[in-house]
Amino acid sequence: MSAPHVIVFANEKGGSGKSTSAVHVAVALLTLGHEVAAVDLDSRQRTTARYMENRADYARRKGLALAVPPVRVLEEGDEAGLAAAIEGAPRFLIVDTPGRDSALAVKAIARADTLVTPINDSFIDFDLIGQVDAETYKVKRPGFYAELVWKARQARAKADGGSVDWVVLRNRLSSLEARNRKRVGAALNELSKRIGFRVAPGLSERVIYRELFPRGLTLLDMAALEDVSVSHVAARAELRALVEALALPALMRAAA
């Protein structure tokens, strides 16, 4: 059996849409016919675990055939549990990390094949990975989180010669702040060339994402959704673009 492809969703800043992105990517991969398992490293909030619990419960109550990946919740410091989860994972393993400083999250990043860092499209969130000049908005230096990822990538290369494909998702893009969006985009592109990550479109700010949580549904569960609107369809297209942008090897081979 080939080793699983580990996709880690990580950002030490909360409220970036990390868990929402993780859950939707997990369900998207299941929908495409892949075996998926998940690990939730935030044993306090357990957002991903709760989402999947809601999904399983809703499917039972409504008699729906919804695919639900197994989710394992790990306590901080449980490195053995993380190693075991990776060792026993199927084709894909989704790892959701806490929105705070976490030593276990750093260990997970060093085991990632794909690292996904969602950020809100603002310089407040951008500061996590890079600092810009107040006048020109040019990148002055990488931020502390970029340095953390750089060290984790070094650890991965030293451990098994592997590499970490780092993808930064631009979440909550606003059509009303064109100037800010352009400046953030330019800074991201500049920084990406310096420290080696890819920039991808994420999920827009939509009420639907918050409404889906209690039922554990995603935008791919159209048959189970009520009152499907144009907004739902547009959001589903965003999700598909996100998954495609991750350029996961198994999906690329299937499309070839």
From TrEMBL:
UniProt protein name: AAA family ATPase
Lineage: Bacteria, Pseudomonadati, Pseudomonadota, Alphaproteobacteria, Sphingomonadales
Pfam families: MipZ
Coiled coil region boundaries: none
Organism encoding this protein: Sandaracinobacteroides saxicola
PANTHER family, per the entry: COBQ_COBB_MIND_PARA NUCLEOTIDE BINDING DOMAIN-CONTAINING PROTEIN, P-LOOP CONTAINING NUCLEOSIDE TRIPHOSPHATE HYDROLASE
InterPro entries reported for this sequence: DNA_Partitioning_ATPase, MipZ, P-loop_NTPase
